[in-house]
């Protein structure tokens, strides 16, 4: 687990502002606490800093981020816009393969943790992007994607579960996706969440 890089991809689309979480807080605020816990654990495992993306209709990338800076990222961003997940996913995976081709990968692989509340508006592109990435992989532990769902959007749940369970049926070379809800995550140790992303 320590010999991996970690990337957080945070959904800041408009629906993250919905106040349907316990205590009447928004999904964005609710996601912050869990995201900070994940970031702290990833920072322990990956002390050179993690990569963080925020995405809605567009995405922004932050490199070599500490867990303290994750809090600032939440403060600097407000939920708005659509849920275009494929572009940040593609950027993160392309970056991994570029470093791999250049011989700059010193670790066993990379884990992407996607924290989202809704079904992406670019579902087909998301599937195609993940399937294409698996075709570039040499072994199944190289890349892992864990989808962590905030809120209880049924469409999002079904889509993320399909990524978890049916990816190889649509041409993926390896099963690299795992999906879990924020509620489920509260009941298992973070290390288990991170391990399931790799060994699902």
From TrEMBL:
Source species, domain of life: Bacteria
Domain named VWFA: residues: 5-198
UniProt cross-references to CDD domains, sorted A to Z: vWA_ORF176_type
Pfam families documented for this protein: vWA-TerF-like
PROSITE patterns documented for this protein: VWFA
InterPro entries with a match to the protein in the record: vWA_TerF_C, VWF_A, vWFA_dom_sf
Protein name: von Willebrand factor A
